[in-house]
Amino acid sequence: MGPRSRTTTDEEFVKAWQSTPTARAAADVLGCSLTSAKVRASRLRGMGVPLKKHWVGRPRKVMDVEGLKRLAAESLPPAMDP
In what helix (H) or strand (E) does residue 42 lie, and over which residues does it extend? Predict the structure, then answer.
């Protein structure tokens, strides 16, 4: 394990967390791991600090339900006559 960096105060953490668009960006600014930043944010929220929730992951594509229904119907094998 490498040398430990200086401790970030809760005030510094809140400023970084609130001013960045993602949890990853906050972790980069703070010089800590993404997991550490998320755990600390969760801990502070549990104490009543109203931190914003950074979205995690990739945006989902909007599902074309009608198109999927058509595709499923078109993909059915022809009905067999008895």
Answer: helix 34-46
Give the C-alpha separation, 59 to 38, whole Å. Answer: 19
Per the domain annotation, does 3 fall within a domain? Answer: no
31 in a domain, yes or no? yes
23 contacts 41 by C-beta, under 8 angstroms: yes
pLDDT in tens, the chain (82 residues): 444 556 899 999 999 999 999 999 999 999 999 999 999 999 999 999 999 998 766 666 777 888 888 888 888 777 665 5
pTM, two decimal places: 0.62
